[in-house]
Write a structure and sequence with these properties.
Blueprint lengths: L7 H17 L7 H26 L4 E3 L4 E3 L7 H12 L3 H12 L9 E3 H18 L16 H13 L13 E3 L11 E3 L1 H4 L2 H11 L3 H14 L11 E3 L5 E3 L1 E2 L6 H14 L2 H18 E2 L2 E2 L1 E3 L5 E3 L1 E3 L5 H7 L3 H18 L5 E3 L4 E2 L11 H13 L2 H18 E2 L2 E2 L1 E4 L4 E3 L5 H14 L11 E7 L2 E5 L5 E2 L5 E2 L17 H6 L1 H5 L4 E3 L34 H5 L3 H5 L3 E3 L5 E3 H11 L21 H4 L4 H6 L1
Parallel strand pairs: 20-24
Antiparallel strand pairs: 1-2, 3-4, 5-6, 6-7, 8-11, 9-10, 11-12, 13-14, 14-15, 16-17, 18-19, 20-21, 22-23, 25-26
Helix pairs in contact: 2-16, 3-4, 3-5, 3-16, 5-6, 5-8, 6-8, 8-9, 8-10, 9-21, 10-11, 12-13, 12-14, 13-14, 14-15, 14-16
Bound molecules: 2-acetamido-2-deoxy-beta-D-glucopyranose (NAG) (6 copies).
The site of one 2-acetamido-2-deoxy-beta-D-glucopyranose has 3 residues, from helix 19.
GO molecular function: calcium ion binding; mannosyl-oligosaccharide 1,2-alpha-mannosidase activity
Cofactor: Ca(2+)
GO cellular component, one term: membrane
Length: 627
C-alpha cells in the first residue's frame, strides 16, 4: 500500500486504516493441530495428482490434468515418476517408494535416440535419482551391499551423466544446451546456452563424484562455473545467453530470474554441500553487483550487463527463489522484505504471473500464466525455518488455498493460463509433485526428518571408515531433490581438499552440536551388511593422458582400451567422431584457462550460517569421523 501523507488529517486516516486492516486480517496463530491439518491437506493434494499421473499418464512424462491422459515433454523417460520419487520418502510412503525403485532398478540405462535438455535432465532426472538413492535407507528399502557408494539408482544417475557430459566438450568448457542421449550433441546444435544452463551442475555432479570416486563430474561442473565467472561484465554482471565456443554474450540482460537463476543458487548450495568456500566468494562478488545495479526498493530489475541501466522493470515468478537463497547465507531481513513484495503480487491475483511489471503493478502481456511453480513457497519454507514468523505460515496457506480452489481438476492440478481470470491450461509440470507439494508439506510438517538439525544421525561402517548419515543439513537441488551432505563423505577421499582441522577442533562443539545421539548400526536401519564391503573403483584410463583433443579421430580411438571403447565414457558421434570424456577432462586440466583464487579455497568460515541452524554444523561431520 503506497500513500502520501500530506497532513495530520491524512495521517489519522492512515492510522485508522492500519488498525482496521489489522483487525480484518490479523496474523493467525497456528496450533500444532492446525499445522497437522494443513500438512494433511497438502498430502491429499499430492496423492490426488500422483495417483492421477499413475492412472492416466504413466509411462508418459507428464499428466494432462484436463484431458486426463499423458504426454511426453522432456525426454520420454517417465519424468514425473522419477521427479516425484523422493517426495514419497518425505511423506513417509515407503511401500510406494520401494515399488517405484523396483521399476527403475529394472532399467539398465537411459539409452534412447532422444534429444534432451542437458539442464532439465540434470536437475530432474539425475537430481531425482541421486536424492532417492541417498534416501533409500531412511525409506527402509533393501539396500545393495556397499550403499551409499553403490546402488541401482546411483548407477542410473551416472549413466545419465555420462550421456550428458559430451555437452561440455566446447572450447570454453561451457556446455551445449541439448544432447541426444544416444548420439551426443546433435549436428547443427546451436552453441548458445543460457547462463543457468551452464552454471547448474555442481550440486548433482559434485554428488556423483563424491559417491563414485570419479572426479570428472565435479571437475567439469567446476570448470563451467569458473568459465562463467570469468565472463562477467566489467560491472560484475552476467547476461542471459552466451556462445559457448566464442564466449560472446548473445543476450545481455542481467537479472536473477529466467535463464540465470539457478547459477546463483548453485554457487551458494554447491559451496555448502561440497565445502567449497570459493563458490561462496564467487556468489558474494556477484551479489555486490546485483545489489548495486538490480535492486530497487527490495525488488530486482533486469538491467544491461554492460551499462547497468534498467532494461526491464519486471518481477518474474521464477525469481521468488531469491529470498530463500539469501536465508541460506543468513540475510533474513533482506529476504523478508523482498518476500513481502512477492507475496503482495500473490495477494493481488491469487497467483504470481510469469512476468509482473513492478512500476505498473500488473501482469505482463502474454506472460500471465502460473504453471504451478514452487519458487515462492520454497522461499517461504526456508524463511519460516530461519525466523519462525507466523506470517509465513499464512503466506503458505494462501498458496495452498489458491491452488486447491482454482487449479484442481478431476484428474490432477492444472496450470493457470491467466492469473487474472484463473482460466486453466491442460498441463501439470513434474515440478508440481517434486517441488510445490514438497515445500508446502515441509512448511507445515515441522517434525519431518528433513528438518533434523543435527540432533541425531546414523553411523555406518564403510570401507572408507565410519561415517555419519541422515544427520540433517539436506541441500535441495534446484528441482527440490534433497541431498544428504554427510553421505558424501562416506565413499572416497576427495583430493585437493585442504580442510583446516585446527579451526575445526576449536569449534568442535559448534559443528558437532551438543545433542548428538549415535545410532549404532543395527537399530532401525539394518546396516550391518555394510561391514566388510569393498568398493572396486573403475580404473584403466591412464593411457589416455597423452592424447590431444585435436587427434580424436576414430583411428585414435581404435587404440583405446576396451573399457573405454565399450563403456559409455566414449560416445560415437555423427561423422565417426569419437568423444572420450577423459580426454576432455585432460584438456581442461592442461589448458587451465580460468584463474583460481587460492585464498578463496580455504576460507571455511564463509560456510557457516547462524540463521539456518540446520545448515551450520553437520555438513562436515564426515570429515570429522573419517579423520
Ligand atoms: C502410498 O502410495 C500409494 C500410491 O499412491 C497409495 O496407494 C498408498 O495408499 C500410499 N500409502 C500410504 C501409507 O500413504
Ligand atoms: C535431434 O536434433 C537434430 C538436429 O536438430 C535432428 O536432426 C534430429 O532428428 C533430432 N533427433 C530426434 C530423435 O529428434
Ligand atoms: C568382517 O570381517 C572380519 C574379519 O575378516 C570378520 O571377523 C567379521 O565377522 C566380518 N563382519 C561381517 C559383518 O561380515
Ligand atoms: C595430432 O594433432 C597435432 C596438432 O593438432 C598434429 O600435428 C599431429 O600430427 C596429430 N597426430 C595425429 C596422430 O593425428
Ligand atoms: C595404434 O597403435 C598401433 C600399434 O600400437 C600404432 O602403430 C598406431 O600408430 C596407433 N595409431 C594411432 C592413431 O595412434
Ligand atoms: C567391447 O565390444 C565389442 C563389440 O562391440 C566386444 O566384442 C568386446 O568383447 C567388448 N569388450 C568388453 C571388454 O566388453
Amino acid at each position: 500500500m503506497k500513500m502520501i501523507i500530506s497532513n495530520n488529517c491524512n495521517l489519522l486516516y492512515y492510522l485508522l486504516m492500519l488498525i482496521s486492516v489489522n483487525e480484518v486480517f490479523p496474523i493467525r496463530t497456528y496450533t500444532k493441530d492446525d499445522l497437522n491439518n494443513l500438512r494433511d491437506e497438502v498430502k491429499e493434494m499430492f496423492y490426488h495428482a500422483y495417483d492421477s499421473y499413475l492412472k492416466y499418464a504413466y509411462p508418459y512424462d507428464e499428466l494432462r490434468p484436463i484431458s486426463c491422459d499423458g504426454m511426453d515433454t522432456y525426454g520420454s523417460y517417465s519424468l514425473t515418476l522419477i521427479d516425484a520419487l523422493d517426495t514419497l520418502a518425505i511423506m513417509g510412503n515407503h511401500t510406494e517408494f520401494q515399488r517405484v525403485v523396483d521399476i527403475l532398478s529394472a532399467k539398465t540405462d537411459f539409452d534412447a535416440n532422444i534429444n534432451v535438455s542437458v539442464f532439465e535432465t540434470n536437475i530432474r532426472i539425475i537430481g531425482g535419482l541421486l536424492s532417492a538413492h541417498l534416501l533409500s535407507n531412511i525409506a527402509g528399502i533393501n539396500l545393495e551391499p556397499g550403499w551409499p557408494c553403490n546402488g541401482p539408482l546411483l548407477r542410473l544417475a551416472e549413466d545419465v551423466a555420462k550421456r550428458l557430459i559430451v555437452a561440455f566438450d566446447t572450447k570454453t568448457g561451457m556446455p551445449y544446451g541439448t544432447v541426444n542421449l544416444r548420439h551426443g550433441v546433435p549436428k547443427d546444435e546451436t552453441p548458445v546456452t543460457c547462463t543457468a544452463g551452464i552454471g547448474t551442475f555442481i550440486v548433482e555432479f559434485g554428488t556423483l563424484s563424491r559417491l563414485t570416486g570419479d572426479p570428472i563430474y565435479e571437475e567439469v561442473a567446476m570448470n563451467a562455473l569458473y568459465a562463467l565467472f570469468n565472463h562477467q561484465s566489467p560491472l560484475g554482471l552476467f547476461g542471459n545467453h552466451i556462445d559457448t565456443n566464442t564466449g560472446r554474450w548473445t543476450a545481455q540482460d542481467a537479472g536473477i530470474g529466467s535463464g540465470v537463476d539457478s547459477y546463483f543458487e548453485y554457487l551458494v548450495k554447491g559451496s555448502i554441500l561440497l565445502q567449497r568456500p570459493e563458490l561462496m566468494e564467487m556468489f558474494h562478488t556477484s551479489r555486490k553487483a546485483i545489489d548495486k545495479y538490480l535492486k530497487k526498493d527490495d525488488w530486482y530489475m533486469w538491467v544491461s550487463m554492460t551499462k547497468g541501466h534498467v532494461t526491464l522493470p519486471v518481477f518474474q515468478s521464477l525469481e521468488a527463489y531469491w529470498p530463500g537463497v539469501l536465508s541460506l547465507i543468513g540475510e533474513t531481513s533482506n529476504a523478508m522484505r523482498t518476500l513481502h513484495n512477492y507475496h503482495q503480487v500473490w495477494q493481488q491475483y491469487g497467483f504470481t504471473p510469469e512476468f509482473y511489471y513492478i512500476t505498473q503493478n500488473e501482469a505482463g502481456a502474454g506472460k500471465e500464466s502460473y504453471p504451478l511453480r514452487p519458487e515462492l513457497i520454497e522461499s517461504i519454507m526456508y524463511l519460516y525455518r530461519a525466523t519462525g514468523d507466523p506470517f509465513l505460515l499464512q503466506a503458505g496457506e494462501d498458496i495452498l488455498r489458491s491452488i486447491k480452489h482454482s487449479a484442481k481438476t478431476p484428474c490432477g492440478y492444472a496450470t493457470i493460463k491467466d492469473v487474472r481470470d484463473h482460466r486453466k491450461e491442460d498441463r501439470m509440470e513434474s515440478f508440481f509433485l517434486s517441488e510445490t507439494t514438497k515445500y508446502l508439506y515441509l512448511l507445515f510438517d515441522v517434525d519431518n526428518f528433513i528438518h533434523n538439525q543435527g540432533e541425531h544421525g546414523t553411523i555406518i561402517n564403510t570401507p572408507n571408515g565410519e561415517c555419519v548419515i541422515n544427520a540433517g543439513g539436506y541441500i535441495f537441488n534446484t528441482e527440490a531433490h534433497p541431498i544428504d551432505p554427510s553421505a558424501l563423505h562416506c565413499c572416497h577421499t576427495i583430493p585437493n581438499q585442504n580442510f583446516d582441522f585446527k579451526t575445526f577442533e576449536t569449534n568442535r562443539d559448534f559443528y558437532q552440536g551438543t545433542l548428538i545421539k549415535k545410532y549404532k548400526k543395527g537399530t532401525s536401519d539394518d546396516l550391518s551388511s555394510l561391514e566388510n564391503i569393498t568398493i572396486t573403483l573403475e580404473s584403466g584410463v591412464a593411457s589416455v593422458e597423452e592424447l590431444s583433443i585435436d587427434n580424436m579421430t576414430e583411428k585414435v580411438a581404435e587404440n583405446m582400451s576396451d573399457t573405454l571403447k565399450n563403456g559409455s565414457e566414449s560416445i560415437l558421434l555423427a561423422e565417426n567422431r569419437v568423444f572420450i570424456a577423459q580426454v576432455m577432462l585432460e584438456r581442461f586440466r592442461k589448458e587451465n584457462r580460468y584463474p583460481k583464487n587460492e585464498a578463496w579455497q580455504t576460507n571455511y568460515e564463509l560456510l557457516s550460517c547462524k540463521a539456518q541452524t540446520f545448515l551450520q554444523r553437520l555438513s562436515i561431520w564426515g570429515e570429522f569421523f573419517n579423520k
